[in-house]
Amino acid sequence: PPMILREDYRPFGWLVPNVRLDFTLGLAETTVRADLQVARNPAADSTPVLRLNGDGLNPLEVLVDGAVMNSWVMEGPDLLVTLPDDAHTVTITTRIDPAANSQLMGLYASGGMLCTQCEAEGFRRITFFPDRPDVLSTYRVRMTGPRADFPVLLSNGDLVGSGDGADGTHWAEWHDPWPKPSYLFALVAGDLMVQRDSFTTMNGREVDLGIYVRAEDEGRTDHAMQSLKRSMKWDEEVFGREYDLGIFNIVAVSDFNMGAMENKGLNVFNTKYVLADPDTATDGDYDAVEGVIAHEYFHNWSGNRITCRDWFQLSLKEGFTVLRDQLFSQDMGSAPVKRIEDVRVLRSVQFPEDSGPLSHPIRPDSFREISNFYTATVYNKGAEVIRMMRTMAGPERFRAGCDLYFQRHDGEAATCEDFVRAMEDGAGLDLRQFRRWYSQAGTPQVRVAVASVEGGVELTLSQTTPATPGQEGKQAVPIPLKLALHDRATGTLGEETLLMLTGAEQRVTLPHDGDAPVLSVNRGFSAPVVIRRDLAPDDLVFLAARDDDPFARYEAMQDLVVGHLLSAVRGEAPEKWGAEGGRAAIRDVLATVLADDGIDDLMRGELLILPGETYLAEQLPVADPGRIHTAREALKGWLGQALEGEFLALHHRASRVGNGFDAEAKGARKVKTQALVFLAAGNPGLAAELATAQYDASCEPGGTMTDRQGGLLVLAGLDSPARTARLLDFYNRHQDNPLVIDKWFSLQAQSLHRNALAHVQALAQHPDFTLRNPNRARSLFMAFVGNANAFHAPGGEGYRMIADTVLALDPLNPQTAARFVPPLGRWRRIEPGRAALMREQLERIAAAPRLSRDTFEQVSRSLG
Ligand code: HT7
Ligand code: ZN
Question: What share of the chain is helix, strand, coil (3-state, %, to 5)?
Fold first, then answer.
């Protein structure tokens, strides 16, 4: 497959101002008649040839200005039509089979309904079209189908007509007045229930809201609806963005490749991010629903009103929208906790991506398959890059920059450069050097050294970015670092300041009165970098227990544990990291955290999370996953024993808090299961009893899925007679709810049980398991990949199982298959024995015939 280059961008030769689509719907046969009004693009090189992208289509008929034309040609999957004049109407008829569409791109059948997914290049699987984001058209869509099968007929924009047809059919016609690229087109037809509501915009316009689900999911959309209304209000208040149609619909489908899709006026969602009720959704699920609903809604401005010129600019809409949804969630709940959660995702997913073979800038320079670039780098690092601009400008000037961007580029297909320029002009920032964050891949490493000088301290800061594939030499990037100098002896906390590190090395002197300065740096995670600082354990203990920045407390706690564990993994003498090899200090800080009335349980829960095994592996040039797992479990067990009384008391206290959805109840549930996690490592017998009791209590009326899942996850890792009984109970209780059965697969795949790998092998044969449903495939195999100890089984069985999954899934759903390749691609950073086994599996995949473009690209980059 060819490599597509960012620098090769050229405007399309033709404009397509208006599109009319006429669908005759059937699950196994849908006919599409597309009328494209086309005109030569004065801003492009003139060409009489209109290239219309297709993917697996045959034109049944081609008309130009109403007359049959036979001189069209196919070039690969594309249709080429040569047009004599400057403006024409081109009409093309195609026929597709949605039921056979297992890729879930284009028009496909899911549970008896029809729905579409067109981003990035799915529209070309429906009809021939210039399927690129810089061709904007208004759409008029007519659908006809059997009323009994498809009582609900939806598309983008406003409903402009509907009626009955012959033989039990009916039709509906929708018109979207806002010009949009083809990737935002959507159609849904099915037998669906709707929850309706309305929203009055800041200018007093009424918007009809609808959330459509299948009958069995009725009654589980209230949280999504409330989240939508909160999102609409927040976007008005914080970004000044008002909704621009009279209708906003959301449809939930159970077969979906990603989380959701922001189609104009008709968002299509994975059921996982719509449906929630206390008996079946965890607190994490509730938060995820709110976050994804917000994200897709916010795209209406950052993505739809202003879209991307080409797919290299994907972070223009995704990075910006992730930042917007993160800020929203910060405002809806606990801001520090949300920040810590977001940083944890960045460091456990994006940092490894950025230090491996798939590393790419947030604005990539090349790709073979764009679906492979919907990554944590484009999304999450992209959000961090814009967050840094906000930090440098402050919220008010940042808002002015956003306002200018929205005003300047409304209705356009824009670039990342346009965004940066609007920030320069609107927020008054000089971003000349900052642009390197868009072009340079890799995570900057910042070394910080502190020396006492007369009247203060001298900081020496230096930065380097390791080489990444195709980018050997790196330049310094501007790094905004929030910092404060505290005094350990007196306990005085210093004022926060913002320092810009712009060069490769920089020295700064900061005033400080006391004798024991402790530097708190990258507070709030002001920059997406790795900080290397040589802080003594005592200083980390001080920061973990006392810093006024919650993120800095979390960070110090993490550093303390990382220091101890890496020392243990390297086999260093325990004294190197303080008494008991640092364990005593960790125990004491944890005890302080457990007793600290100044923080709530949601925050306490964050401070109790030990760094994950992937994050720990990331700290080493070459890691032995087995040693990391052993060291981490040993620490957990030691802490579980050393603080058994405290964890028991915590579990007891938290169990007495009610089942509500306020912060107190959510916090209690969070620390309750965390207490169990430590106890399970320290005293498995006792933990099994408590986990069983927690599970059983959660099955009483009013009990929550958070407690049920938490108890069962811990129990699944232990050898207890209750294990099998409760797993069976959970299955029987929820067997009719696919999203909960996904949890059942996941928690067994994630469990710390020594036979987890064999359990996953057996579960893959379970009658409820299928690779055809992406949620189910991910629930078992992605959860398994996240279980580092099981995935990295020394004999390579885990690697083989994932390679088998890729090979089985690739012909069905290449996008989902390709997402299982990156875990194997980490082989260079794993000890040689396992690395060889990982590589062997990548080579086995590479050797398979007829590999998809998606999987081929990921495997070849991983081996490269
Ligand atoms: N913008 C949406 C991307 C998306 C997608 C991409 C490829 C294949 C399937 C997909 N479904 C949705 C999601 C978002 O970021 O909002
Ligand atoms: Zn998005």
Answer: 45, 20, 35
Fold exhibited by the domain 445-527:
Immunoglobulin-like (2.60.40)
The pair phi, psi for residue 698, each rounded to 5°, is -70, -15
Which 8-state DSSP code applies to residue 580?
G
Which residues are identified as catalytic? 296
List the helix and strand counts (H, then E) for the chain.
Answer: 29, 31
Tell me if 705 sits within 8 A of 318, measured CB to CB: no
Contacts of 357 (CB under 8 A, 6+ apart): 469, 825, 828, 861, 862, 863, 864
Neighbours of 627 (CB within 10 A): 18
For residue range 257-282, what is the model confidence (pLDDT) as tens digits?
Answer: 999 999 999 999 999 999 999 999 99
How is domain 4-191 classified at the CATH fold level? Immunoglobulin-like (2.60.40)
Where do you find CATH 2.60.40.1840 in the chain?
445-527
Measuring from atom 2 of ligand 1, which residue has the nearest CA? 261
- What is the rounded average pLDDT of the residues 227-244? 99
CA separation for the pair 853, 1 (Å, rounded): 6
> Rounded to the nearest whole angstrom, what is the distance from the C-alpha of residue 261 to the centroid of ligand 1?
5
Sheet holding 73-75, edge to edge: 49-52, 78-82, 73-75
From atom 12 of ligand 1, which residue's Cα is the shortest distance away?
Answer: 261
Per DSSP, helices labelled H in 299-452 are: 314-332, 335-345, 351-354, 376, 382-393, 395-409, 416-427, 436-439
256 CA → ligand 1 middle, Å: 10
Distance 315 CA to ligand 2 centre (A): 9
* 370-401 CB burial, b ≥16 within 10 A, e <16: bbbbbbbbbbbbbbbbbbbbbbbbeeebbbbb
Instruction: Supply the residue whose CA is at minimum distance from atom 6 of ligand 1.
Output: 119
pLDDT tens by residue, 413-436: 999 999 999 999 999 999 999 999
> Any idea which fold 735-864 has?
Zincin-like fold (1.25.50)
Question: Are 320 and 382 contacting, i.e. CB atoms less than 8 angstroms apart?
Answer: yes
247-253: strand order across its sheet: 193-200, 206-213, 247-253, 266-270, 260-261
Provide φ and ψ at 787, rounded to 5°: -90, 80
> What ipTM describes this predicted complex?
0.99
**Homologous superfamily of 307-439 in CATH?**
Neutral Protease Domain 2 (1.10.390.10)
